[in-house]
Amino acid sequence: MRCPFCGQDETKVTDSRDSDEGKAVRRRRECEKCGRRFTTYERAEDTLPLVVKSDGRRQVWDREKVLRGVGRACEKRPVAQAALERLVDEVERTISERGEREVPSTVVGELVMRALKDLDHIAYVRYASVYRDFQDPDDFKRAVESLEPAAPERGGEKDE
């Protein structure tokens, strides 16, 4: 494993343990050249479907791309990196369980937005503004209104 700090190829594993409910192995490593420590994750490679973009291009599922997208939406928000990892795990699991060879990018985007809506409302609106290509303030207004619980029905007797 190459050291992310100095580029040296020689590193040693100082600790290994299961992560993500046994679906990954977390390894603490130490560079033998610069002595700095870093963490790597090893997970079994699933056969995930191709993502079909709106223009018809097909791309291999890219977990890191989705993680970067939700990370940007959550910038300066009180959202832990572990929560983002779980969100991407859930999206990945959902598309994998579909059992299809291809999945439209719109499905991925909607799954991410649904998860962000539960995780952080501001991150949801940020992600939606890019994903849905908001053009004017009304688009933002509709996104915020979708977060608000349904207003109680008016009329009838007043509480006293």
Number of helices: 5
Secondary-structure element order, as H and E? EEEEEHHEHHH
Mean pLDDT: 86
Approximate helicity band: 25-40%
Structural class: alpha+beta
Rg, nearest Å: 21 Å
Question: Secondary structure elements and their pairing?
Answer:
Layout: E1 11-19, E2 24-31, E3 37-43, E4 50-52, E5 58-60, H1 63-73, H2 81-97, E6 102-104, H3 105-119, H4 121-131, H5 137-145
Parallel strand pairs: 4-6
Antiparallel strand pairs: 1-2, 2-3, 4-5
Helix pairs in contact: 1-2, 1-4, 2-3, 3-4, 4-5
Description of the molecule:
The chain is α+β, with helices and mostly antiparallel strands. It has two domains: 10-44, no CATH class; 47-145. The protein has five helices and six strands. A three-stranded antiparallel β-sheet has the order 1-2-3, with no helix packed on it. Strands 5-4-6 form a three-stranded mixed β-sheet. Helix 1 crosses helix 2 and helix 4 packs across helix 5 (137-145).
Keywords:
single chain, 160 residues, alpha+beta, three-stranded mixed β-sheet, 5 helices, globular
Brief synopsis:
By secondary structure, this protein is of the alpha+beta class. Helices cover 39% and strands 21% of the residues.
